[in-house]
Amino acid sequence: MPEIKVTPLGAGQDVGRSCILVSIGGKNIMLDCGMHMGYNDDRRFPDFSYITQNGRLTEFLDCVIISHFHLDHCGALPFMSEMVGYDGPIYMTHPTKAICPILLEDFRKITVDKKGETNFFTSQMIKDCMKKVVPLNLHQTVQVDDELEIKAYYAGHVLGAAMVQIKVGSESVVYTGDYNMTPDRHLGAAWIDKCRPDILISESTYATTIRDSKRCRERDFLKKVHESIERGGKVLIPVFALGRAQELCILLETFWERMNLKAPIYFSTGLTEKANHYYKLFITWTNQKIRKTFVQRNMFEFKHIKAFDRSYADNPGPMVVFATPGMLHAGQSLQIFKKWAGNEKNMVIMPGYCVQGTIGHKILNGQRKLEMEGRSTLDVKLQVEYMSFSAHADAKGIMQLIRMAEPRNMLLVHGEAVKMEFLKGKIEQEFSIDCHMPANGETATVTTNPSVPVDISLNLLKREMALGGPLPDPKKPRTMHGTLIMKENSLKLVSSEQALKELGLNEHQLRFTCRVQLQDPHSDPDTLNRIYTHLKSVLKGYTIQHLPDGTVMVESIVIKVSSSAEDTSTKVLLLSWSYQDDVFFCFFFVSFLSLIFSKQWLRDSIDS
Amino acid sequence: MKLYCLSGHPTLPCNVLKFKSTTIMLDCGLDTTSVLNFLPLPLVHSPRLSKLPSWVCKDGTINLEKELKECAGRVFVDSQPEFCLPERELLDLSTIDVILISNYHCMMALPYITEHTGFTGTVYATEPTLQIGRLLMEELVKFMERVPKAQSATCWKNKEIQRMLPGPLKDAVDVWTWKRSYSMQEVNSALSKVQLVGYSQKVELFGAVQVSPLSSGYSLGSSNWIIQSHHEKVAYVSGSSLLTTHPQPMDQSSLKNSDVLILTGLTQMPTANPDGMLGEFCSNLAMTIRAGGNVLVPCYSSGVIYDLLECLYQFIESANLGTTPFYFISPVANSSLEFSQIFAEIDICHCTVPRKETLIQTNKLKHYPSIHGDFSSEFRQPCVVFTGHPSLRFGDVVHFMELWGKSGLNTIIFTEPDFSYLDALAPYQPLAMKCVYCPIDTRLNFHQVSKLLKEVQPLHVVCPEQYTQPPLTQSHRSDLMLELQPPPMPYRRCSVLNLPFRRRYERVYILPELANSLVPSEIKPGVSMATVSAVLHSKDNKHTLQSVPKPPPVPPSKKRKRVMEEPPVVLAPKPLLSGAVPLEAFLATLQKHGITEVKVEETADGHILHLQADDTLIQLEEDGTHIVCDNNEPLRTTLRDLVLRFLQKL
């Protein structure tokens, strides 16, 4: 029985360093190759020694597919391809291909230049790695080799995020990456057709959450920003450069326009300008509305949002600043935070999740006195707000996707074990399908039961369809008979006659004859004629022929009459039939005997 | 499998393919050359046009002075221009399941097909094709609606009258079916039926056929199509190009191994080299400007103009034309330029120098929706104007013809290959302005297509009849036609071709349960066979075979009579037999089963075995066995089973 095996090297009952190995139909595929943000040691990257202890990965993997540009999905890519060694194809969408190297370079700079790590991938390695990338278009079916094909679906989440279908023969797996089932201001909702994969591998970040309406959260956000501005405060929004930042920018931009607000909005420089450029470039990946209106007005060409300069932070009066990074652990957002923290008129809004140990995490937990480097402390007087704008599917969304794709099995990754357990129960209950949640290094095996594709001769098929009638009749299933010829990997189903011809075999006729004696005073032809008329009246619905050569044929059973020379009233009936009619003959013979020995027959014989 | 040909225009095709119970329309091009028979529609009142004399028949019998005007010896219809539609009588258009569009030039008849015909299907096109196609339609509608013409000439269409008219009106075909332009509402409704597809995306049609667009390299979003089932493959090649000016190269390898290749959309200018023409275009442009004249370039708002702009961008610096203003006037100019930039960049993904930005940023190319408004105040001469429509019958170009036609300093440069420039200019004669004809057609030429066909090796090629003979004007150029073995099947408007296709196999899926129950036996090395008895299920054109359900256990029934009346249809019929029964081995087997008294008699074809104890005969021959046995069913079945041991069952 064929099997599909799924082994997470990362993101198994965990969030971070997504890397999932899939073995399907003799092909090995790596889905995502991410890094873990919570670690700075070896655990940062997936454990590739699981694949092979020594040497390169090329011969063990048929392809690598990257779902989107977030580092927890692609951060280990140069390490894997250049330092461990992989020369096969790496598939990702055009936007991911464009943005991914920028983020990788940024990640490298922080790790090597700032933290001073050695033994890390270099800029050149990122470039070399990107040379192995083959771009994917949405819905395009890409043939990796003769048997393995992949197809990308829109996933929402971030620009260029894709779900991928992996197919070998009639077996298939769908991997969602991160996805979002509700459209937002700049991206559409994830969509997939009813492709009925053997396994659907889904993220489950928000496995237990059902979020309130986005509209409420947005209104809340705008209200808070507005109030703060009204009382002359400054608002800091720490963000990561790509993703939610654009969503919030559009939100504020339209709000400013509508309310005719004058307070400046700034966006900290760096990655962001480039990011907005890519959003403009890949406008087809954004949602319908943006695409429709871009000719008149490009949503990413902001009127109210201007580039930030360090000196602006000390300007008097209200302002809104988007600054990186998102968890207040370093960089510009932290600098601004320090400047503004002492004033209760100001506000910081955290639009996403913060990892333990970061200042973002601390202030969200209500800490009001922060210890900074150099033993100084910082009093946090400004307002702290948290608002989740992450573009992940919630429990409702995950269920919705399952309904869309109708998988035969479910497999959860990219979530916390406890929450997964809950969702797993829900899925198994609602859809009656198996749901797996392997931990890292653990393998989930699913047996598949693929149908065997065969080429049927059109003659046979048409004959069968004509006989079967236009509508199936469950009470009378019709049986089709044919011969399957297996030759050089080809499977052909043909009628038995054609099979004989194609295989160059001659048919062997097996016939039987039996003799029955009968008393009948008539002449031979008359006897035969009587048999004919009697059979005709008894066996309705069969082809009964009286042939000119002095035989009667019932279907293909031949009946002849002869009489011995001495006794002309003793007739010998010769019944002859072929092996193929054996069963029918048995049935026929009984009726035949009951016929010729019936009273009616005898009476007729005597009367004459 | 049949092909219905609804258009005879080789580059504006409209064919319908019937393939495996699906009806697929391939492109729906609109033949606009019919508008050349009409008078131009001026944007502002033109005294010259309104003063043209009416045409009067020589013998004075016909007087259509309201409808027909004469200009420089030619007769024109004074009415809103009309188009020659794809044939609508050849088959019922409401039966069309899908329409596949290959590029934005080949979809202009779409509203005529999808609206008011009962069409309920889906149209498939790539996103650039849809967006730019919408612009071209919108432009056409706006051109027409801007200058509404109260009068609609119909009398001249009368067969009796048309016969008396001078050529080319006399020879125009199907004039009764010619139609005015559609409305924006019809365009929107037609385009709402478009489903977007990406290159190499496989689209299933009713489970029977799979269609897939391939990059054709001709224009933004242009595609060829593959229409295939598991065993048959039709390639539809429309406007394709091997030039590298377009972002996505032509996908040739996917066209391989097709049974039939339908070839349309070759270059209309087989003898003109696009690069040479571009050079000529630039040098004529520079010459006119230097002499203080204006240059008029009639063009569509999308397509060749992108190439011209790119070429000019490089040229104007070197030719020292930095101060000359370039104008692009079209109701959709802005959108067209935006789209060209966006789509081009998406396709290549590395943003090199954006075309529009540089030309606009340097203030060289300015675009306006029309000659009215801003343009009239900002316009200065000498200048270069790109504007439509290339037929010179409607659009802003009519105005510039009237304005600049009288001066020999000005030049009109034709770059679009769709119209004969002499015919286009006819209603403006006599004309003082210079005319330059540099048609730029980047589609495949005969040399390229022969090479392509050699590469992809289709079994049969279908093409417009124009491609099977040299052009009329160059009848000696046998290199300007398709020469293939087997010869291509030519079509013309209204042809119905039976495509040489023999479908012999169909895909069927054997369900796992049944597959596991099959017992294969090896016939010869590498060849095995198994007999299959199964129930066939056909749903959505997908066929599956599953095991014969076991008959439910017969409940002990009280009505036992007439059981034998029911014929045993549920039982499997016996298989065919093959092989031969070897005498010695068979005798030995008989012996093993206690049949010892066997008299063997040799005959011409084999042997007769006489089982003396039972008065039974067995006739053994190379290709048959005959058992004659009376009233001894147990013996007969034993013998039958023994014979069967030596034979193969199919």
UniProtKB/TrEMBL annotation, chain A:
**What UniProt keywords apply to this chain's record, in alphabetical order?**
Cytoplasm, Hydrolase, Metal-binding, Nucleus, Zinc
* Primary site of residence: cytoplasm
> Which residue range or ranges hold the Metallo-beta-lactamase domain?
16-229
Show the InterPro entries listed in the entry: Beta_Casp (IPR022712), INTS11-like_MBL-fold (IPR041897), IntS11_C (IPR048662), MBL (IPR050698), Metallo-B-lactamas (IPR001279), RibonucZ/Hydroxyglut_hydro (IPR036866), RMMBL (IPR011108)
- Give this protein's Gene Ontology molecular function annotations: hydrolase activity; metal ion binding; RNA endonuclease activity
Q: Where in the cell is it found?
A: Cytoplasm; Nucleus
GO CC, sorted alphabetically, is:
cytoplasm; nucleus
GO biological process terms, alphabetically, are: snRNA processing
Give the similarity note.
Belongs to the metallo-beta-lactamase superfamily. RNA-metabolizing metallo-beta-lactamase-like family. INTS11 subfamily.
Protein name per Swiss-Prot or TrEMBL: Integrator complex subunit 11
Q: Name the source organism.
A: Sander lucioperca (Pike-perch)
Gene that produces this protein: ints11
TrEMBL record, chain B:
User: Where's it mainly located?
Assistant: cytoplasm
SUPFAM superfamilies in the cross-refs? Metallo-hydrolase/oxidoreductase
Q: Which domain of life is it from?
A: Eukaryota
Which Gene3D superfamilies did the record assign?
Answer: Ribonuclease Z/Hydroxyacylglutathione hydrolase-like
An example GO CC term for this entry is: integrator complex
* Swiss-Prot/TrEMBL keywords: Cytoplasm, Nucleus
| Subcellular localization, as worded in the UniProt entry | Cytoplasm; Nucleus
The record's InterPro entries line, in alphabetical order, gives: Beta_Casp (IPR022712), Integrator_9su (IPR027074), IntS9-like_C (IPR048660), Metallo-B-lactamas (IPR001279), RibonucZ/Hydroxyglut_hydro (IPR036866)
Q: Where is this region: Disordered?
A: 540-562
Give an example GO biological process.
snRNA 3'-end processing
Q: What protein family does this chain belong to?
A: Belongs to the metallo-beta-lactamase superfamily. RNA-metabolizing metallo-beta-lactamase-like family. INTS9 subfamily.
| PANTHER family documented for this protein | INTEGRATOR COMPLEX SUBUNIT 9
Q: What is this protein called?
A: Integrator complex subunit 9
Source organism: Sander lucioperca (Pike-perch)
- Gene that produces this protein: ints9
